[in-house]
Amino acid sequence: MSNNAAIVELSQTANKFRSSIVLQAENKYIDVKSILGLFTTLVGGLSYELHVHGPDAEEAKKELAAVFSKHNLNVAVVD
């Protein structure tokens, strides 16, 4: 299954926000605003942690969690 749609949507959503948005997958940290970073990391079956810090973090967490959920990706949003 291709995650291209998920990757593009996550990146586009992340880029709407000023907050720092980082995805942790095992021991890797990826800037969610970077499509290339997501392509190399967003592979099936992993569980992810989303770290969001900045002025619009709450809104960013809500929108990104919805995108992850829509694409059936397992993510825990870390406070």
Automatic annotation (TrEMBL):
Residues annotated as domain HPr: 9-69
Signal peptide as annotated in the record: none
Cross-referenced Pfam families: PTS-HPr (PF00381)
Record protein name field: HPr family phosphocarrier protein
Species of provenance: Cohnella faecalis
